[in-house]
UniProtKB/TrEMBL annotation:
The keyword Transcription regulation applies. This is Response regulator transcription factor. It comes from Isoptericola luteus. The modification 4-aspartylphosphate is found at D70. It holds the Pfam family Response_reg.
Length: 236
């Protein structure tokens, strides 16, 4: 696949743009995403691939920070590619691109290590915000459309798979459970701080402890656990 002229194989240095990989079998979709992303001074498209197999090959040689991964692709689908990619050491963060008709598959991708998901018809500003959010180490769960999609997805989960995570919840304090519930409802750290009448720094500390105790890679993994265990119910 193609790399921009002069693309380097190393990670970004201080102040360097966030390096993004586009993985989608539709060239016009990639072209549209590239135009939007490359219009931003802090972002750049470093790798493009037309399927999951090609993406895994290219990303073995070219370091990127965030991957936008389509689900339905020939040769190797986005679900399998996401699982293999996130299993690598120093893996980039993955945002799965999807539509509502792929619900159970997208949830599987999230549980395999993706840091969020985005509807393919999302406004450009939402896509840009998602890339920046994931690169900061957070996860894409706050937009209302994403929250509704998460609630829609969890309905498909087999109940027996939640047992290990139920045990993990036992290690949370009452306050940490409260924070996790608010996270699962799409509340930002600032909003949680206002809800609980505490400093935002305190919320960040709670979130960090929640992730550590649950063994969650990031915020969205913790939120999926909250739904899987029944701590939060879809639509509640």
């Amino acid at each position: 696949m193609t790399l921009p002229d002069g693309a380097a194989t190393g990670g970004p240095g201080p102040g360097a743009p966030v390096r993004v990989a586009l993985v989608d079998d539709q060239q016009l979709v990639r072209a549209g995403f590239r135009m939007v992303i490359d219009s931003q001074p802090d972002l750049e498209v470093a790798v493009e691939a037309g399927d999951g197999a090609q993406a895994l090959r290219l990303l073995g040689d070219h370091r990127v920070d965030v991957v936008l991964m389509d689900v339905r692709m020939p040769n190797l689908d986005g679900l399998t590619a996401t699982a293999r990619l996130t299993a690598r050491a120093d893996a980039p963060r993955v945002i799965v691109l999807t539509t509502f008709d792929l619900d159970e598959y997208v949830l599987e991708a999230i549980r395999s290590g993706a840091s969020g998901f985005l509807l393919k018809d999302a406004p450009p500003e939402e896509m840009l915000a998602a890339i920046r959010t994931v690169h900061r180490g957070d996860a894409v769960i706050a937009p209302s459309s994403t929250r509704r999609l998460l609630e829609h997805l969890v309905v498909a989960l087999p109940a027996e798979e939640s047992a290990p995570q139920v045990d993990a919840l036992g290690g949370l304090t009452d306050r940490e459970r409260e924070v996790l519930v608010l996270m699962a409802r799409g509340r930002s750290n600032t909003e949680i701080a206002g809800d609980l009448f505490v400093a935002e720094a305190t919320v960040k500390t709670h979130v960090g402890r929640i992730l550590a105790k649950l063994g969650a890679r990031d915020r969205v993994q913790a939120v999926v656990t909250a739904y899987e265990t029944g701590l939060v119910r879809p639509g509640a």
